[in-house]
Amino acid sequence: MNFQKCAIIGCGFVGSATAFSLVESGLFSEMVLLDVNMDKAEGEAMDLSHGLPFAYPMRIYAGGYEDIGDCGLIVLTAGANQKPGETRLQLVQKNVAILKNIIPKIREQDFQGILLVVSNPVDILTYAAWKLSGFPAKRVIGSGTVLDTARLKYLLGEHLGVDSRSVHAFIIGEHGDSELAVWSSANISGVDLGDFCELIGEPAYREDLRALYENVRDSAYEIIEKKGATYYGIAMAVRRIAQCIVRDEHSVLPISTFAEGHYGLSDICMSLPAIVDREGVEQVLDIHLNREELKNLGLSAQALRKVLDEIAPDLEL
């Protein structure tokens, strides 16, 4: 297994932006691009390769599944986009069908690295990829709410007038409409959020939290309405996750992971803070949640469980 080699399956907007972000990162010396449209994969590989004199030494090429067995990381971005009039469940079924075509081909290569699912709905597809692959749960992770959490940090930082890198807070649960912000543990460089707001003269900050959360939750809808798709933010989120894996950082990120016993949940994938390293998920962290947050996490899990129950027959090989 070569942690200097990665593969990206799916060369649409998200896959191509992710490839560019990973080329810029300098994390890998080899990258293979796969797509059902081989010309698209070859074109992206050519375009990226032409910029290598400005980046890091690297081999970038379009390939097939026979090229990915020794990868340390596979990033799965393949999937259909939701069409007007199409239900969420129909989209799920369509993308599960795509996974049922891809995952067996990955298994055939005796892949031993980390499978990172980015395609949406990411929590459902992370669970499906785990079930279909038979890989240990720690090696199948989803990008989850890493981007949502970054959006929260950015917007809260803008609101408070501080560097977003000094903001520490999580979005957890479903990557979607039922996600929740963990305000009870939010802090600014170790200073409790409420205390920090008192210090800067904003004692009524709680009145702004609901609107700020809704802005985070609905950001993707607004971006899609304005430009048709989101891809830069998630590409940078994937880069951050890849850094944790390749550099064996043991960093804490709210990735989508298999939950069994955490907060009373079982047999489900959703975003929870977890220690991420070269093995994938080292440990899921049961951080403190207040009563309302715990209730909302349960409601988020119920929303995911309903979809999982409906597609259960599709997860049989």
Give an account of the 3D structure.
43% of the residues lie in helices and 19% in strands. With 317 residues, the chain is α/β, with parallel strands linked by helices. The strands form 5 sheets. It has a 6-stranded parallel β-sheet, with helices on both faces. The model has no long low-confidence stretch (mean pLDDT 93).
List the helices and strands and how they pair.
Blueprint: E1 2-9, H1 13-25, E2 30-34, H2 38-49, E3 59-62, E4 71-76, H3 88-107, E5 114-117, H4 122-133, E6 140-142, H5 146-160, E7 167-168, E8 171-172, E9 180-181, E10 187-188, E11 191-192, H6 193-199, H7 206-227, H8 232-246, E12 251-253, E13 256-259, E14 268-271, E15 274-277, E16 280-284, H9 291-311
Parallel strand pairs: 1-2, 1-4, 2-3, 4-5, 5-6
Antiparallel strand pairs: 7-10, 8-9, 10-11, 12-15, 13-14, 15-16
